[in-house]
Each structure stands twice: as C-alpha cells, then as structure tokens.
Specification:
Keywords: Ribonucleoprotein, Ribosomal protein, RNA-binding, rRNA-binding. Helix content is about 25%, strand content about 35%. By secondary structure, it is α+β, with helices and mostly antiparallel strands. It has three domains: about 90 residues, Beta Barrel (Ribosomal Protein L25, Chain P), CATH 2.40.240; about 80 residues, Ribosomal protein L25, C-terminal domain (RNA Polymerase Alpha Subunit, Chain A, domain 2, Beta Complex), CATH 2.170.120.20; about 30 residues. The chain starts with a strand and ends with a helix.
Length: about 220
C-alpha cells in the first residue's frame, strides 16, 4: 500500500530563494516521470521527509501535488550537505504500477536464537535485500527468523520466505546471519598460568638458542 505524502508546487529556483526555503523548514525537490509532460518542481516539509527516510526510505509513495494530483512515486535520489548531513534536495520518480521494479527492503531479525542462548554471538551480514516486484507488492520489511540457528550455523538468502509476488536475484548461498562461537575469557588464575607458561617457553627457546650459538663456535 502506498504511503500518503504531501508536496507543494515550487516556483522558487535561485540559490538565494532555495536557501531561504531550507531555512524555513522546506526541502526543494523534483518529480520525474514518463507520464508527466515535464518534471515538476516541488518542496516538501523537512521534518516529514526526515521521518520518511528513517522509517520507509524505499516504500511506494502517493505524492499529492497541487495542480498534478496524486502520483505514485518512489524516492530516487537524496542529496545531503556533506558536513551537517541535512537533506538539501530530493528527487522523486513516478512509477508505472504495471511494471516490475527493483528496490532494497529492510531485513528484520526475529526469534531467540538457540546459538545465542548457548553463548554464541549473532552477526548480521546483510541488512537489506534487493527484491523485484510490482510497486504495490513492495513489503515494508522482510522477517528473518533465527530461532533455530545454532552456533556455527548460517542463515542464507535461500532460507528466507519471500512474500507472494516478490523475488530476488541475489545469490541463494549469500549469508544473511551467522552465529559465531563465543570468545572464551580466561579467569585470573588461568591467565597467570598462561603467562608463566609463555615465560618458561621463552626461556627454553632462549637457552636453546644460546646452546646452538655455543655449538657453532
């Protein structure tokens, strides 16, 4: 389902005007699309855009543009100021609801892993999955259930249950999640014994080296 999002038609275009717009809490943008007679200059609310980027950066949007009506679009490009990372410009791309598109979707890990309960460490190797589907089939997220994953085991792309109408061309053997063996910590006594053993080994090595030198002479 498309997420409703608001935009205002923008007529300001000079650098000074755009700077003022940003200072007032708006972000300039452009809507592109083959079904549009020409690109449409718009502005969107900075806070609403920031919330969208945090929660649904790859979702289908229903962009309400004064004078152009509601358009099915997706975020295409987001430009940020290098230092502050504030969004300074955004591009929307009108989509054809009857054409398959590619888009990344967030992976969400669920379940209490057997391996983690046994002391293992869960490591995510992939946080998003690139999928192919019709625009209205884009899922908000894809769940990755790790409940049965033990220490030393991997969960692969082929193990994911994709929603109906959704496919991926990513390698089926690509690892998404792995459970690493726990890093054993030595007790104070074990650490001391290890240090003594290392010192004695170093002494033996040094004595052997001195003996070899004397032998060569």
């Amino acid at each position: 389902m498309a997420i409703p999002f608001r935009a205002e038609e923008r007529k300001l275009s000079t650098s000074g005007q755009l700077r003022t717009m940003r200072q007032q809490g708006s972000v300039p943008g452009v809507v592109y699309g083959t079904k549009l007679s020409k690109p449409i200059n718009v502005s969107v609310n900075e806070k609403e855009l920031a919330a969208l980027l945090r929660s649904h950066p790859h979702s289908l949007l229903e962009l309400d543009i004064p004078g152009a009506g509601k358009q099915p679009v997706m975020l295409n490009e987001v430009q940020r100021e290098p230092l502050s990372r504030h969004v300074i410009h955004v591009d929307f791309h009108q989509v054809n609801m009857n054409e398959t598109i590619k888009t990344p979707v967030r992976l969400e890990i669920i379940g209490d892993s057997v391996g983690v309960r046994e002391g293992g460490i869960l490591q995510s190797m992939l946080h998003e999955l690139e999928i192919q589907c019709l625009p209205d089939r884009i899922p908000e997220l894809i769940e990755v259930n790790v409940a049965n994953l033990g220490i030393g085991e991997n969960l692969l792309v082929s193990d994911i249950q994709l929603p109906a109408g959704v496919t991926t061309k990513l390698d089926a053997d690509q690892v998404i999640v792995t459970i690493l063996a726990p890093q054993l910590e030595l007790s104070a006594e074990e650490a001391q014994d290890a240090a003594v053993e290392a010192h004695e080994a170093e002494q033996r090595s040094h004595e052997a080296e001195m003996h070899a030198v004397r032998f060569e002479k």
